[in-house]
Amino acid sequence: MLTARNLTKNYSNLHVLKGVDITVGKGEIVTIVGSSGAGKSTLLHILGTLDTPSSGEVWLRDVNLGTLKGNALADFRNRHMGFIFQFHHLLPEFSALENVCIPGFIAGSKKAAVRERAAFLLETLGLADRMEHKPNQLSGGEQQRVAVARALINAPDIIMADEPTGNLDSKNARELHHLFIELRDKFQQTFIIVTHNEELAPLSDRQLVMRDGKIISEELTAKTIS
Ligand code: ADP
Ligand code: ADP
Hints:
Layout: E1 2-11, E2 14-24, E3 29-33, H1 40-47, E4 55-60, E5 63-64, H2 70-80, E6 81-84, H3 96-106, H4 111-124, H5 140-152, E7 158-162, H6 170-187, E8 190-194, E9 206-211, E10 214-220
Parallel strand pairs: 3-8, 3-9, 6-7, 7-8
Antiparallel strand pairs: 1-2, 1-4, 4-5, 9-10
Bound molecules: adenosine-5'-diphosphate (ADP) (2 copies).
One adenosine-5'-diphosphate (ADP) binds near residues 14, 16, 40 and 42.
Protein name: ATP-binding cassette domain-containing protein
Pfam families: ABC_tran (PF00005)
GO biological process, one term: protein localization to outer membrane
């Protein structure tokens, strides 16, 4: 599904990534942990084409992402990747349903089909009675689930999540990780999740530990494999 080879990232003399290789298979949940400054966000941003590596390649399906530029890159990213951040970044003036639809409209999909899928996703995520609410009428956990639905709208190959539980209390954080597992089981959804949360990181198929720009260990967690 996703393969990265020998990624490096330098800011003048600062070597933030020092040769990272990573392979993520379909339907796999991979968490990346490590202390602050280890390079986790930089790695995730490069995998998600939000940033470019100094050297190395990222492939998603059979596409070398380094060959995509401009509109083609933006279009590929919107169709094939979903993003979840620490803050939900929902647009305040739009309803939950409209927020979820936006990436589908941008992709040029039929509006009725997008609305139908958005409603289906919100129902699946337990938000059937929250679709017409504006973000500020929703709890933190609900807002983040709307952001998850938005990330899923174009049926992306992979979802990249950067500290998705960073702004949630422990109960909501745990529920969000269980939701990721449910989505993996139901839709074979693939995830890469950067997290500080050492309790939640093992709720994954594989846990990568980063230190000082490298992946220093890789552990099959297998706690969620039924
Ligand atoms: P934030 O989202 O925390 O405001 P960003 O990561 O978006 O910060 O960075 C804002 C700007 O600062 C970007 O241009 C980024 O390249 C730059 N930047 C981020 N971290 C550093 C750093 N450690 N040293 C120098 N520039 C940085
Ligand atoms: P983590 O997510 O593991 O906390 P980051 O990937 O955010 O680590 O940062 C890794 C290192 O790269 C840090 O030392 C950070 O200051 C530095 N860094 C990140 N972005 C920039 C930038 N735009 N310019 C310079 N240094 C940066």
